[in-house]
Write a structure and sequence with these properties.
alpha+beta, YefM-like fold, three-stranded mixed sheet, 4 helices, 18% strand, elongated, Antitoxin
Length: 85
């Protein structure tokens, strides 16, 4: 759950806002309305699609819930040494 702080609170305790962002997004309000979001850089990169993504991350994504993924089993031929002669 995101933490919400006012612009005034943010200006008076930037360090506290950064510490709060360690555990999730911090919404900074301006006159009671959400105006900015403070989050860790690695989370930002993940959100814009530049983070390191594994197949497990992709399969765990909510959009992937309706996709059937049933890869074929590896055959024995992939486990035998290559013939280089």
């Amino acid at each position: 759950m995101p933490t919400t702080i006012s612009s005034r609170e943010f200006n008076h305790d930037v360090g506290g806002a950064k510490r709060a962002a360690e555990s999730g997004p911090v919404i900074v309000t301006d006159r009671g309305e959400p105006a900015f979001v403070l989050l860790r850089y690695d989370e930002y990169r993940r959100l814009i699609g530049q983070g390191e993504t594994s197949i497990l991350d992709l399969l765990d994504h909510p959009v992937s819930a309706g996709i059937d993924f049933d890869p074929p089993r590896l055959g024995r031929e992939l486990l035998e040494p290559a013939d280089l002669g």
